[in-house]
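W.,

You were right to be curious about this one. When I first looked at the sequence I had no strong expectations either way, so I just let the prediction run and decided to look at it fresh. Below is the sequence, 635 residues in total, followed by the output.
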Amino acid sequence: GCSKSETHIASLDDAKTARIGAMTGSTGEAITIARFPKAHVKSFDDIMDAVAAMKSGQLDAIVTGYPAALQVSKKNPELALLSEPLALEDTSIAIRKGDNELLTALNRIISGLKSDGTLESLKKRWFKPDLTPYEERDIKLPVTGKSLKIGVSATREPFSFVDKNGKVSGHDGELARIIAARLQRPIEFFNMKFMALIPALQSGKVDMIVTGMTATDERRKFVDFTQPYYASSQVMLVRKITTVKSPPSEAVSGVEHQEITKQEQIDGKRIGVLSGSAGDLAARKHFPNAEFQAFTASADAALAVQTRKADAFVYDKSVLLNLAEKNPELVILDQAVDKLEVAAAIRKDNTALLAELNRALSELKNAGILQQLRSKWVDSKYTVTPQIAPIKASPGQVILKMGTSANIEPFSFQANGALTGLDIELGQLLGQRLGKKIEVIDMNFEALIPALQSGKIDFALSNFNVTEERKKLILFSLPYIENDISALVRRVSASVPAAAQRNNATNHQDTKLRTVTDLKDKRIGVLIGSADDTYATKNYPDATILQYKTTADIILAVKTAKVDAALFDADPLREIMREDDSLGLLGDTLFSFSVGAGFNKSNEALRGKFNQFLAQIRQNGVYGDMIRRWMEQRD
């Protein structure tokens, strides 16, 4: 299809009708909507998603806080900040309403940090004008006592981000640790979407929010703020305006689209990594000139490569084999980037559990069971998810809490409504050997090390790559998998094997769907816990229902023929299809459902006010305009 012509923005006045990205729930979002009422404003949870949209021509500008904008411009020299800020704002720590004792203590600490130069030192070390390494201070924290629970949205480098070791870092990460040290309390970080932070604070899930939050009058209705610890501003990030001296030749302009066929071509390209993984570390070591895109799931990274938002995905070959086998468009380069070991992760001081796990792993290795697991899950190229034999727990067994991140097939993932994979089966076998019951806790990968350190879990099995940096934070068991770190890239079109093309065509022919009735015995993908999940389970009892945690997982499953179809809400699906014409709709609408706002059962007053407001915007046309711009209008 055709693309929109670029809008060149040299001043804020040029952005009146531009396509502008902003962070969901941020002050920048509110300012942008108010300042540019005729602009097309699109919201993002992660600034790097907005940057990717801008670089692919879907946005003309991004409005965000100065520190985040500065960081993006350093790593993307084709982007620049406009000199005129949209607004000046104070950044503060948010705490629950009425917690005056904590508020007084925090204000006293912040005053001390201002007067002794600590805040100025933080600013110089984290908000740097160049890409030289950060200078993070080592803060000694207590290991006993009541944890100080910190809410963060760690996607806002250099304010708050997850570093290569899986640790919450940045200006606010260090500030939170300094505060915890002053309060003589251990610390525990809870990483979540920005919009979830204030509800988490109100419910008591976290004690405070330290993540570059602006103290606005609207937010003060729900939380209390400390005195400011940083004076920031909302700025606009735009493309640099360059003068093209002469049109590029066809040969030169085509270079950007050449596929990677050998490892030497990767450096300088866009590389997808799972944040903090051994693949991440290896890629940054071997490809220092690359542009890195951090993902939390392998399916997201693979989809980025497939849709040309990234050029390569560097990760554990065991996982890449699974992705490449099911998608002929992707291929693993022959030359390995590096080597890795996969092991169980244990809290630093839990040497007793380490000894128990090592003994059990040695027994499983000597019995040939570890090799059997590898053959079953990694080497088999399965098309139907292997089964795990149930293990009965004895009454009164001690519970071992095992952390995992269930989005890394074949190690840990969701299938047929249950957790499965090599790590899940290995966890059960370890529990059997130790005479203990294994309780699996699924969480984001970057939360595993903090969960170990805080005692929320006893050990983790989640394709945990052994790295020297992680050894400083946790203990590792004997390795149970040894593998290559490799690069997944797009296959050169002409080199797709004829057999793969025939097999792919045959697969599509075998599962050809003409009506929704054909779904009755097929494999259907759904978002876990969604209305589509309920509908599919009820109406297709003979089908295999595969549940996924993210939209990217579902789309990749359809494209790689892991499922025959997916049930999805119509409007998001149409938006996806605008970006990917390889997908299509089957039949008419399956069912309809109402979408409403949720309220606390006891807050009938707020529910009534919201319903009055909704009736008002329906009547004055605002609601219809929103539907037209967001649901019906197609660029």
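Here's what jumped out at me. The chain has five domains: 12-89, 93-226, 257-340, 344-478, 497-579. And, maybe more interesting for your project: Confidence is low (pLDDT under 50) at residues 1-5, 243-257, 494-511.

Coffee later to discuss?

I.
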